[in-house]
Amino acid sequence: xxxxxxxxxxxxxxxxxxxxxxxxxxxxxxxxxxxxxxxxxxxxxxxxxxxxxxxxxxxxxxxxxxxxxxxxxxxxxxxxxxxxxxxxxxxxxxxxxxxxxxxxxxxxxxxxxxxxxxxxxxxxxxxxxxxxxxxxxxxxxxxxxxxxxxxxxxxxxxxxxxxxxxxxxxxxxxxxxxxxxxxxxxxxxxxxxxxxxxxxxxxxxxxxxxxxxxxxxxxxxxxxxxxxxxxxxxxxxxxxxxxxxxxxxxxxxxxxxxxxxxxxxxxxxxxxxxxxxxxxxxxxxxxxxx
Length: 290
Description:
The chain is an alpha/beta fold. Helix content is 36%, strand content 16%.
C-alpha cells in the first residue's frame, strides 16, 4: 500500500470505496469497491507509471509468463475504460514489431456516461470488426455499451437497480451497432438486469437481425432458465467466469442455499445448446495461473 502512496495518514476516499484499517489505523491492503468497480480502478491508477519502453518490456515478460502456462490467446473486453487507440500503443507496437506472442481479440468499451453513442460513432470511422491480423484484431463492442446498463457483482451488497433511463440510452447505441454489424457483449450479472436488456435486444434485433452476429452476456450468474431460453432464441450466448465461487458464502447469506445451488446452471445451458464460454475475468477476479 505504501507503494501506492497510502499509509496510516492517508484519508482520501476512493469514490465510495473503503480502505480497511487495523486497530492502529494502518491500511491492511484490503479495499472494498462499492457500489461499483470505480474505487478499484482509482486505486490501480495510483500505481507508479512505467515509461513506454518499460511498458514494452513488462508486456513481453507477461506474454512469456502466459506462454509458459500454455496460454496462446486472450480476449480483451477493455474493462477499466481503456480508450482506443490511445491506450493501445504498447500492444500495437509489439504487434508491428512481430513481438506479440499472445493473440488478442479486443473490444471497445464506452468511455463517457451519457455520451456512449458518440464514442461508438467515432470508433466506427477508424476501426471495424475483424480489422487486424491473426495476433491483434478488433472483435466487437462491449462489455459496457452504456453505463446505465452495467450492474456490479458484489454479492454481499444489495443488488443494484439499473437506472430508469437505461432503455432509452441503450436503444440508440444498440441500433447503431447492429446496423453497422458490430458483435456485442453485455456485462450483466443479475436476472432482473438481463430481462430489461433482453427486451431492448429483441426490439432492436427485430429491426436489424441478430442471426450470424455474435452477441453474449458476460457473467449472468443468477439468470433463470427462462432467460437462458430467451438468450438462445435471440441467437446469443453466455460467457461465465469463476467469480461466484469467491463470493459463495456472501451469496448464500444474502439469497439463501437454494438460490446458490441454482446459480450458474452450466449443465442446463449445455443441454439446451446455448453457446457457452468460460474464463477468469482477467486478473480482476483470479490469477491467470489459477
